[in-house]
Amino acid sequence: MPPCSTAPPWNALNRRGWPWPGAGKECDNIGGYSIIYADPPWQYQRSKVQGAAENHYPTMSIDELCALPVAEIAAPDSALFMWATFPQLPEALRLIKAWGFNYKSVAFVWLKKNKKADSWFYGLGFWTRGNAEICLLATRGHPKRQAADVHQFIISPIEAHSKKPDETRDKIISLMGDLPRVELFARQTPPGWDVWGNEVEPTIRDFGTICPKEGV
Q1: 132-140 sheet: strands from edge to edge
Q2: Is the whole-model pTM more than 0.85?
Q3: Are 113 and 60 spatial neighbours (Cβ–Cβ below 8 Å)?
Q4: N or C, where is the chain less crowded by C-beta within 10 Å?
Q5: What sections of the protein cross the membrane (predicted)?
Q6: How confident is the model over 53-62, as pLDDT tens digits?
Q7: What is the CATH number of the domain that holds 105?
Q8: What is the total count of domains within the chain?
Q9: Structural domain boundaries enclosing 139
Q10: Does residue 194 lie within any of the structural domains?
Q11: Would you say 53 and 39 are in contact if contact means Cβ atoms under 8 Å apart?
Q12: Cα 59 to Cα 41: distance, rounded to the nearest angstrom
């Protein structure tokens, strides 16, 4: 598997709506987030799937994702919780390594139900119908689990396109404790979380040290 490019493509990303590092507010936790929660906007090779995603948000290539300086905001002992789709699993594992973490397990499996009917969501799929999504767990250093009673399954209805269940955050805090935490590619600003994304006001001012230059 080829390594990720390390060229930070901030200008191209900013033109597509992603805030470049330095666009947020002052934050005291740079280099000290014990919990990083991410829902990357994966690009797909199949045009039908890619087109559906782009209708809702700007996607990012694997090289663009790898170039994000996540390692710079992670504490020496920290955990990464990252949503991944099954077709993008190889890219997800590659991204975990690029961000300086080691894959450990599947933290959560979201079994999707329909919005209104009490029945399973009938998802897309080139083989079986996809109605489950996984949140991978990776670690850096030696973070400690704080609870042994957090279950893997999340059973809840689908909401807005690509929006993940809110209870995921509660499960993460139950598992790891009330530690400094940040949500990347966030779509809302939950209490107690710093956030970065194109649908929120970023609360990370110095997400990396490389910012776009004028005229580039």
Answers
A1: 153-157, 102-113, 132-140, 74-84, 33-38, 181-184, 194-196
A2: no
A3: no
A4: C
A5: none
A6: 455 578 999 9
A7: 3.40.50
A8: 1
A9: 10-189
A10: no
A11: no
A12: 5
Q: Of 130, 137, 153, which Cα lies nearest the Cα of 82?
A: 137
pLDDT value of residue 29: 54
The region of weakest confidence among 42-51, 81-90, 173-182 is: 42-51
Say if 206 falls within a structural domain: no
**Torsions phi, psi of 17, nearest 5?**
105, -5
Q: How many helices (H) and strands (E) does the chain have?
A: 6, 7
| Position 163 in a domain | yes
Q: Are 81 and 135 in contact (CB under 8 A)?
A: yes
Higher pLDDT, 57 or 35: 35
181: which strand partners?
35
Within-domain flag for 204: no
